[in-house]
Design a protein that fits this description.
The chain is of the alpha/beta class. The protein is built from eleven helices and ten strands.
């Protein structure tokens, strides 16, 4: 395991060199702000080769497990050039059943070990396509964002300034609690995962570029990750195209979304959403992300790809 507290300044020197090497080779580096891994199926040599092949500079790898785990220290020790230490993801079976104890442990480790980022916490999560294929509903989760666990998480971010990620499906009824929490905790740094991923249109009549613009301009503490399916990706349970950002008729992304991201590029963060049950999809996810990045105005592209993530995590420019 890497020593703790993490030597962030030393790690940043490695990470800067890696990013600069990619830039010097004419490649757009990517910082993946949101992925998780299963340490039992992780092959660091294979992943290093794949990251180099697809131009992924850094991954904020959040471990998944049956309990709070320090596996992030393992991957940082194995490869201190590629992985940003990230706390254990808030997913079943530990979350939300043992959520209070889980957050208490997270708080201790963030404070003592200098984790720069907290993993993804699931507050509203439909079963994933892979779970639906296995007839599983284990991650059909609903936890009140404005309940005790949500307040504890937002407070923790305010106190430590460590950003955290939420999986929070896009439904009209869920938007008021989110806005209320952002207002109550203005120093909490929140990354809302999966921009414009709407899996049931009948449940979401409000969300769109205009609504997201209003959120961004009202709440400077809110960020969005850009991990979502490709243009032809459908959510099996509804049969609907669930990555609503794409313009499938003209190609690329819809003009309103492109304009919004160009206006506020620092609020959108590249992400791959690798998971423990899809560790083999780095190539596919990387190609999908680059398709999205290529559709952005050139001025926004490097900010979304890596500069915004760096500034959010380390409060400095790269």
């Amino acid at each position: 395991m890497a020593a703790v507290p993490f030597e962030i300044e030393a790690l940043k020197r490695n990470w800067r060199r890696r990013i600069e090497a990619m830039r010097s080779a004419g490649e757009l580096p990517i910082i993946d702000i949101e992925s998780s891994f299963d340490v039992s199926t992780f092959d660091p040599s294979d992943y290093a080769r794949a990251m180099d092949e697809y131009g992924i500079a850094l991954i904020a790898f959040s471990p998944q497990g049956q309990s709070w785990t320090e596996s992030a220290r393992v991957v940082v020790a194995l490869d201190p050039w590629r992985y940003i230490p990230t706390t254990t993801a808030g997913v079943p079976p530990l979350w939300p059943k043992e959520g209070k104890e889980f957050l208490e442990k997270t708080a201790r480790q963030v404070r003592s070990d200098r984790y720069p980022l907290m993993g993804e916490f699931e507050f509203r999560h439909y079963p994933s396509p892979r779970q639906l294929a296995r007839n599983g509903a284990r991650r059909d989760i609903e936890v009140a964002l404005d309940g005790p666990l949500g307040h504890a998480l937002f407070r923790l971010s305010e106190e430590t300034l460590a950003p955290f990620q939420i999986h929070y499906e896009i439904e009209d009824r869920l938007l008021p609690p989110l806005e209320a929490m952002l207002k109550q905790y203005p120093k909490a740094r929140v990354i809302w995962s999966h921009l414009a991923q709407i899996r049931y249109r009948s449940r979401s009549k409000i969300y769109g570029p205009a609504y997201v613009r209003r959120l961004i301009e009202s709440f400077p503490n809110l960020y969005f990750d850009t991990a979502f399916g490709g243009p032809n990706s459908r959510y099996p349970a509804s049969g609907e195209f669930h990555a609503t950002i794409w313009d499938r008729s003209a190609g690329g992304i819809q003009k309103e979304w492109a304009r919004l991201i160009a206006d506020h590029p620092w609020r959108f963060l590249a992400a791959l959403d690798i998971g423990g049950d899809r560790m083999d999809r780095l190539g596919e996810q990387s190609q999908n992300l680059r398709r999205f990045l290529d559709a952005l105005p050139s001025s926004a592209r490097p900010i979304v790809a890596y500069k915004g993530g760096w500034r959010l995590l380390f409060n400095e420019e790269i």
